[in-house]
Write a structure and sequence with these properties.
Layout (H helix, E strand, L loop, with lengths): L1 E3 L4 H7 L14 H6 L2 E8 L7 H20 L5 E3 L3 H6 L5 E8 L8 H9 L2 E5 L22 H13 L2 E3 L5 H10 L3 E3 L16 H9 L3 E4 L3 H4 L7 H13 L6 E3 L19 H11 L2 H15 L6
Parallel strand pairs: 1-2, 2-4, 3-4, 4-5, 5-6, 6-7, 7-8, 8-9
Helix pairs in contact: 1-3, 5-6
GO molecular function: metallodipeptidase activity
Pfam family, one: Peptidase_M19
Protein name: Dipeptidase
Length: about 300
């Protein structure tokens, strides 16, 4: 059993009108998903920056509609995950789908828009993508500014609603501002800076802060976050897993593939159906307890929203 905390299928459903049931365009479609060991998949609402600002929220609403109408509602074996109890209730023949938001640029400076997305099922909110927005700077901004007052208001709402605050893509200063304020913290998809230096990877200081806060963070399959080699292999990914464990992250770690957000892939890890290749290699180096924690237990135990 595996839980994957990040993919960009909704972008392709919206942008390319891909067929979720079975499509060569998708690294995660229903046919591949059913064949894989992935029990629960998180689907991110990501609205590209080139979409005009006045249209971004409408596109986010459209992606939320596509999540429910194209991924969940047509298939009896796919269950919408709203809270931790939903994860525990999944039957042996059922899959779980979680809706997330990648970047608060879509809400502008209107907290009611975030409330609406939460009401539609969003259960993790990435504060930024790479650019600045009304909440905070992203990692791609030179000034590297931290949380704004509106950003503090956003985190306060997420705390109140028991929603994960996702710190992937955020500026370095914003990361530590958010760590201090957020109650439920994740970094859904990123690797270790000391293993391979990429601006999107986590520094030792960030890893320690996440571990200290008992947060959740996901190893990602983006090859250029993993290694500088021309052909990146699964063993290169294992180095990041081992590093996080060595830094005390065994009870915090999981997977956040970023499938359908990448075109280049790690060798033998090209789509969701290739997860068995990863699990086979993981089994060579880690204990059964470590594998269970990383594969699904950490995610379930830290899922913040509980049933009312």
């Amino acid at each position: 059993m595996v839980i994957d905390a990040h993919c960009d299928v909704l972008l392709k459903l919206w942008q390319d009108h891909a067929d979720f049931e079975s499509s060569e365009q998708l690294q995660v479609d229903l046919k591949k998903w059913r064949k894989s060991p992935v029990k629960v998949q998180c689907f991110a609402i990501f609205v590209p920056e080139e979409v005009p600002k006045e249209e971004q929220f409408d596109v986010a609403l459209e992606m939320a509609r596509l999540f429910h109408e194209k991924i969940v509602e047509p298939y009896p074996d796919v269950q919408f995950i709203s809270n931790q109890q939903d994860l525990h209730r999944l039957g042996d023949d059922q899959l779980g789908a979680v809706l997330t938001l990648e970047g608060c640029h879509v809400i502008g400076n209107d907290i009611d828009k975030l409330k609406q997305l939460i009401s539609l099922g969003v259960r993790a909110v990435g504060l930024t993508w790479n650019q600045a927005n009304a909440v905070c700077d992203g990692i791609g901004e030179k000034r590297g500014a931290g949380l704004t007052r509106f950003g503090e208001e956003v985190i306060d709402l997420l705390n109140k609603e028991s929603i994960w605050t996702d710190l992937s893509h955020i500026s370095y200063q914003g990361f530590f501002d958010a760590i201090e304020r957020a109650r439920y913290i994740m970094a859904s998809h990123g690797n270790a800076m000391e293993v391979y230096p990429h601006r999107r990877n986590l520094s030792d200081e960030q890893i320690q802060a996440l571990v200290n806060r008992d947060a959740w963070f996901g190893i990602t399959f983006v090859p250029y976050f993993t290694s500088g080699k021309k052909i990146v292999e699964i063993n290169d990914l294992l180095k990041h897993i081992q590093y996080f464990i060595d830094k005390g992250g065994e009870n915090c770690l999981g997977f956040g593939s970023d499938f359908d957000g990448i075109s280049d892939t790690i060798d033998r890890l090209e789509d969701i159906a290739d997860y068995p290749n990863l699990i086979e290699e993981v089994n060579r180096y880690f204990t059964n307890e470590q594998i269970e924690k990383i594969s699904y237990r950490n995610f379930i135990e830290k899922f913040p929203r509980l049933e009312n």
